[in-house]
Every structure is written in C-alpha cells, then in structure tokens.
Amino acid sequence: MTRLKDKQTLIIGILSMLTFIISPIVRIKPNRISMGELVSSIELFSFFSLGILFLWAIIIALSFYGNKRRYSYQILISILLLISIVLLIPIKAERLLMGTSPRISLSQGFYFQLLWVYLTIFISSKKTSQSLAINALFILLPLWVFYYTSTIGLFDDLSLMKEFLTKKNQFYNNLIVHGTLTVFSVLSGMIIAIPLGFIAYRYKKAEDKVMIPLSIIETIPSLSLFGILLVPLSRLGRIGVLSNLGISGIGWAPAYIALTLYTLLPIGRNTLSGFSSVDKGIIEAAKGMGMKPLEILFKIEFPLAFPVIFTGIRIAFTQTIGGAVLAGLVGGGGLGTFVFLGLAEASPDLILLGVIPIVILTIAIDYLLRISGEAIRSGIYD
C-alpha cells in the first residue's frame, strides 16, 4: 500500500476540489449597483471543470509520491491552475453578461482557489531547493500572462478592472503615497529603534525602561493613536515652516508618525535579541587580540547580530504595508483611500482595489526580504 508522504498537500487538494464544486466562483451583475446572480464553478466552466479538478487530483496524487521533485511539479501545476482559472473566468462568463453596464465580480469560490494555490506553492517552495532564477521564473510567468491578456482587454468586463480603469490616475498616486509612507516609516523606525535596542543590550538596567514603553506603544489602537496625535500636530501646524510642510492634525503627518511608532517594537526587540545572541567567547577573544570597543561593535557584534535585526526590519515592513491602510482614514492617502471609499459606497470591488495590491505587496516584499535575509546570513556564517 502506498504511504502518504505529504498530509498538508493532501488536505489542501481535497479542500480545493470541494470548494471548487460547492462555492460560487463569480457574480454576474447587470450594472454597478445591482447584486447580480451567483454562478457556480461547474456552471461557468462546464466541461473545463473536469480539467481543473483533474489538475487538483494530480496534486493529491503527488502527496503520495516520495521523490523530492514532486514539489517542483506541484508548483508548476499550481501555476497552471492559477492561470487557467483566471483566464477562463472572463472567457466563459462573457456569454452570461446582460444589462446596461454588465460586469463580473469575483466571488468566494475564486478566492478559495487562490488561497489553495498560494498555500500549495508556499508549502512546496519551502521543501524544495530551486535556484533563484527558477523561483523568479515561477513568479514572472503568471504575471507576464496576466499583464499581456489585460493589455488585449480580456479582463475589461471584470468589475475590479472597471473600478481600476475609472480611477487609474488616483490608484497610481495612492500606490506611490502608500509605498512612500511605508519606506520612510520603516527607515525612521530603524534610526530610532536600533540604537534603543543596543542600549537595552548594553545596559541591562535600561532594558525594561526601553522595551516596556515600546510594548505599550504597540498595544495602543491605531484610531486612539491618531486621536492622541491630533491636538499636538494641529498646534504644530500653525507654525509657518511646519505648515508649509503640510503638517497638521490630519494628512500624512499623523499617519507617518503612527506607522513609525509601530515599527519600533519589532526592530528594537530583534536588535536586543540579535546582540544578545552573539557568542561572548568571540567578544572575549577580540578583546584579547587588542581590539577596541568600537572595533568590536562594528566589526564583530553588529555583523553577527544583523541577520536577527534584519528579521525585525522584515517584520516591520510587512506590518507597515498593512498598517498604512489607516492613513486613508485621516486623509493621508495610500491604498486605504479605496478601502474606506468602498465601505462608504458599499462597493466590494472598490474595497478590493485597495486590498489586493496591499496583499500582493506584502507577499512580494516579505519574499524578497526573506531571500535577502538568507543571503546575508549565509554570507556572514559561511
């Protein structure tokens, strides 16, 4: 009897087939405000459904296969599934469109399939040792396919695409603002938190005095923090120079300060952990060789602690990308603008216009920083 080799993939494969059969994959709407009708995957794809189910069945079968190459096969099949589902939806739904401004809204069945594909790729990539070029190919191939098909208008009937096309310039402007807030908040957090973490490491009596306030800041809800910042920033905004910079109780300033404050704990805590993890024997050996304290710090302690510090920076980046959504609530711009506008207009697709890029950015930045962190670690310890 063939023994099960990968329980996780088996469970994902079974759940993917069940949700594909049960959950509606799209909602066909005659116009923007209508609720429309739900359409199941089987009804939409007809006999193509057998192909999708067959690909998931292969992934299930591979969970019983012992060779490590199966992980590469699972990634390839998952990418093929993703491409097939995304391309088939507008092609097959076109015959169902009716109304003055018909559109296709993606339903829970699609997001379930997206989740199972992502989990399969994530689990398989963890267990295989593909080269960076192969991993890049796996990422770029579906992106190129989707980009090319979007340029020929294949996705124009998707409600999400219609929202994007009507707010294209606003989208790019808010994307830039979102990225700028994230980068500068994390950089500011690094400038503040790394020295604080080092102080907590160097002077043990100062550890609680440094880390407890950072922990308290992390527990303050975002809306409360915006409220705390409102009054002092409003008063500072009356000063001519600061007013010219756009500092006020609302806008980019409270968002930037709040996001910076939330980066302090992960970076500071990892800085403390990083320096604490340095082998004391190495430091003593360096002292025995006559190295000065600053030389020990910058040539031994900091390089050895940096991989752990970098992990804190990665956590801060991914946390800030999501947290920057709240900038839209105080007029700071960013992709959160679409989220709150969509909530006000009861438009799920407008909400997704803000949410989906944030999810993609979070996954992409986390992946790139994780690869960079592994390269840094291997460069230091090899």
Describe the structure.
There is one protein chain. This protein is mainly α. The protein has 2 domains: 7-156; 168-381, MetI-like (MetI-like fold), CATH 1.10.3720.10. Helix content is 74%, strand content 4%. It has 16 helices and 3 strands. Strands 2-1-3 form a 3-stranded antiparallel sheet. A hairpin with a 7-residue loop joins strand 1 (24-29) and strand 2. It is flat. The mean pLDDT is 85.
Write the topology of this structure.
Elements: H1 7-22, E1 24-29, E2 37-40, H2 41-45, H3 48-62, H4 70-93, E3 103-106, H5 108-126, H6 132-151, H7 159-166, H8 168-202, H9 207-219, H10 222-236, H11 240-244, H12 252-276, H13 280-288, H14 293-323, H15 336-345, H16 348-381
Antiparallel strand pairs: 1-2, 1-3
Helix pairs in contact: 1-3, 1-5, 3-4, 4-5, 4-6, 7-16, 8-9, 8-12, 8-14, 9-12, 10-12, 12-14, 13-14, 14-16, 15-16
CATH class of the largest domain: Mainly Alpha
If classified by CATH, what would the architecture of the largest domain be? Orthogonal Bundle
Structural class label? mainly alpha
Give the CA-CA distance, first to last residue.
43 Å
- Our count of helices gives 16
Overall radius of gyration: 25 Å
Helical proportion, percent range: over 70%
Order of helices and strands: HEEHHHEHHHHHHHHHHHH
Shape: flat
The CATH homologous superfamily of the largest domain: MetI-like
CATH overall fold name of the largest domain? MetI-like fold
Strand composition percent: under 5%
What does the main sheet amount to? 3 strands, antiparallel
Q: Low-confidence parts, pLDDT < 50 over ≥5 residues?
A: none
